[in-house]
């Protein structure tokens, strides 16, 4: 038997399961850049550069380490795979199981349709880039009434003994959110983010991406919209170390704050690296725990950060697979609890809107492919939810626009957490808010054409009339969520005249030409 290893673009670690399954380094390895694959949607240019440059760097590292590496740039995966199998007389191609279901199906289809004539098989090796295997998550989820993240997170902490004193959480509490999520008061000066100058390989990829005649999202040039992400494990580790030593202490307190010109606040910015295998979640968690033990970094920040990686990230991955395999559930990606059908406004592609919060966030996204969690949740998906945009169109847009977007992380975050389109499996209530919240947690409203206090009238903020229109429009379904009863009482107190004006403003907004929205 001759074994060969096919490494996918989000599996760039030397300890990944397919590589680890072979003791010898004298085995053929292949990495393929497929042009047809990246035309499934107009991906962000910076994401194409990140993946392809990271793949090229990884291939070079494997070659230097003694592997026999083939690197192909092709129209599709099949032709170079067939050629490589034949040239190396390979009888078994090993692939680590992709995190994304559509990619797994693509591999299975390739094997079914083309591999028997090659006298070769594909062996799928369980993915080791997450802390919980699919089976472990299924066992946790099976038969539970509530799949809320908090229970999963406690279990995760207990079983890995992270921030634990025996069976009890260190500090006596599982969560310190009452100390976190402070509004951005006074002059805040978050530490600079860790960026990198592109090297020769990355510059070649940038030129290649800019020369492609395919639809893409976002900006990429040599001056204003430079590519400054890391593309190697060494650089990803530098970002992690920088975060742990310089930013982690302030992470919790201002986790939810948003400021013009301070695009990344105290966030770690490691998701692009975690999601392609340049970092492993366990090393990230251990680094944060060590910082707590050795450098007295405040527990509210350390616990808050560990909850994101050990709780939310693993939970989203587990749920994605769990929903896929639940019988008679319908496709999770197609859920639309509120039957929202509005198309995406034009400014989702350009950032050109009078709403300053959306203008700031989408402009940043076009430049870098990144905005932080609260900008994703409370600006982008909050607006999409209350304005009644189609969840599938929104999910597709998120997948297009973000540097760290993959099917496994997109569905439960956008359909579930962001839009409540699953009817409340992931979130215990919709993350819907009016301008009041945005004004409290950011400085966007201060320089906006709209009045954050007004819900009707000429300068009424769209977040206000859409918020109340959403509560009114979807009242029956919202009334079933216990946590919404308080706010629905306020809706009941609103005069019929004001409610009618709000409904009209919301309807008219969707009819406005793009430049006016
Ligand atoms: C609508 C919506 C869309 C999102 N899309 C993506 C996406 O495409 N890719 C992605 O990786 N994350 C996504 N998230 C989750 C989260 O917003 C990002 O992981 C985070 O903002 C990445 O920035 P960071 O590395 O600076 O994170 P930090 O705020 O520093 O958090 C640390 C790490 O925790 C993990 N994490 C935190 N929350 C989540 C979560 N809800 N799901 C998964 N991982 C989490 C990430 O790996 C992140 O790097 C989305 C969240 C929402 C609400
Ligand atoms: S006033 Fe409304 S639209 Fe303007 S920044 Fe504030 S929330 Fe956004």
What global shape is seen?
globular
Provide the number of structural domains: 3
| Name of the CATH architecture of the largest domain | Orthogonal Bundle
Number of strands: 7
The helix-and-strand class reads alpha/beta
Distance from first to last alpha carbon: 62 Å
What is Rg? 24 Å
Q: What small molecules accompany the polymer chains?
A: flavin-adenine dinucleotide, iron/sulfur cluster
**Largest beta sheet: what is the strand line-up?**
3-2-1-4-5
CATH topology of the largest domain: DNA Cyclobutane Dipyrimidine Photolyase, subunit A, domain 3
The CATH fourth-level homologous superfamily of the largest domain: DNA Cyclobutane Dipyrimidine Photolyase, subunit A, domain 3
How many helices does DSSP assign?
21
User: Mean of the pLDDT scores?
Assistant: 95
Low-confidence stretches: none
Strand residue percentage: 5-15%
